[in-house]
Amino acid sequence: MQQPTYHSISENPKFHELVRGRSIFAWTLSILMLAVYQGFILLVAYDKEFLAQPLFPGSTTTVGIPIGLGVIVFAFLVTGIYVARANGRYDALTRELVQEITK
Amino acid sequence: MTFKRAIASLALALTASAVSISPSFAEAVSGAVEKQSLNIEAIVMFLGFVGLTLVITWQAARRTKSASDFYAAGGGITGLQNGLAIAGDYMSAASFLGISGLVFASGFDGLIYSVGWLVGWPIVLFLIAERLRNLGKYTFADVASFRLDQTWIRILSSIGTFTVVALYLIAQMVGAGKLIQLLFGLEYLHAVVIVGALMIIYVAFGGMKATTWVQIIKACLLLFGATVIALLVLIKFNFNPEELFASATKIHPKGVSIMGPGNLVKDPISAISLGLALMFGTAGLPHILMRFFTVADAKAARKSVFFATGFIGYFYILTFIIGFGAITLLMNDPTFFKEGKVAVANLLGGTNMAAINLAKATGGSLLYGFISAVAFATILAVVAGLTLAAASAVSHDLYASVIAHGRASERSEVTISKISAVAIGILAIYLGYMFEKINVAFMVGLAFAVAASVNFPVLLMTVFWRGTTTFGAVVGGLLGLVTSVAGVILSDEVWVKTLGNPAPLKFFGYGIIDNPALYSMAIAFGGIWLFSIIDRTSRANKEREAFEPQFVRSETGIGASAAHVH
After folding, report:
1. What is the pTM of this model?
2. Model ipTM?
């Protein structure tokens, strides 16, 4: 069996589909995470009063608590979303690619 | 002696500036602590932990034969196990005691810190984890030098590794000494020697296998202990956070202001800069990056980050509850305060002991002993991981590649690594003793800034940008190193308050921000780009051509080391 060259792989349309899809997905999620976090930090820096107001009338719990905890939960959720898609769809695509080039 | 004192006062003053965190957090582990009476429960449980980990080390040593066993645990760690180990590396005693102490002192501000420390993980997953696994073998320098000059890139990566490890290791050793002095009633020097000796045994004999399992056991113990304290707190408030918060604001001297942001974040630019350091520093910590080589493939590497993020996030939510629990349950009991005077600063052992004191208040001396032992175990596990990362840089990067030019035998490489682990351990004991008074939080903040400004940019640019050349990576990386360290020294806190200069430095009418990451990262990335595009040598052209095979392998794992070993 002829060993496939890296060049032939990078010319393969499946490879393009895989790389393009996954990098758009990964960079979108990265920017989303960065925006959510820096948004939270800017809120802390610029609008302390917003975060310190009661969540509902008369409560001690402030708006900031669910927002802060929400960023933590958000970080966990986006990693979950990425792993589900990468370990499913993108890994399947990688397997197809490997099969195709080693045929 | 005067030198030591000078270093100590410099470090103290550096603190708030470097990471712009509240003084209460910084002061806690760094101030003088009083030695406590012997804590029998804690010592018994700690000896149990040490006994168990030594058995594991002995078994790991018997099964550690190849270099792959030593550096990467033979690649046989599962995603879940690695996730726990990564979480263990990250949930240091500083974050457990420090964040719960910060919540105890200022409430909501503690949450801001936790959030910052967590959000780096998705970035590690999306951009780094699987590519690292696909391209590297034992150290992140394998990845950075994949298509670039072995000698120069490995020297640069080693400098980055040593700087980050040294800063982090000193912080952990000093924290360990203080904590043990406080919890177990041992002398500071004895405590530091015990930690150093145990970490040498784990790393030199058991390599990555032992280091990983020590980390996994400790992570489970810490998660269990923190869960128990949080549950004991919540039971008292009918599992209703509103009741907990209401009771805390009634008793805390700062009242309802603990429910909103306080003084942690001074100005938006500093805040963004600190955020960048925390977020991207995580992706440049050598002992964390090494963990991605212990799993079988890219799939397991991704899973490990998913589990790690879950465990760390859960743990930070627990520390938040623990901090508030400490407010309500400790502040109505004067016996937890010096001379019975209830005030944040009067808490026995300092504010960083909030979680430990709360364990006593909720679970008696048994839980107190357990949490103390876990805190000690935590430090032990983290320093072992750091030592292994530095020892690997010495043997795999400097000895095998730079000195022996790849002609070293696997056996001699592992021997060099073991010798290095012993030497690094002894050095760590010495530094821990030397820098007894240094500020722990400052050192950790600086470590993150350097990791974000040297290791991370070099790694990201070589993996993603075809144009990166050796010249560009080395010059840009060194610029990042110099600016991140200089940025801390030139900040107001150090320049004015420590070095005694009359006025803060101003450039074009603007002062210098507290954390350098915002500009030191920009200079590192800009430097790599600029010095790469002006590099017109034939070597640079070859390096650009070599991007294609690297790219295929990093995206697909085709040809990845150990991935096809069955």
Report:
1. 0.89
2. 0.93
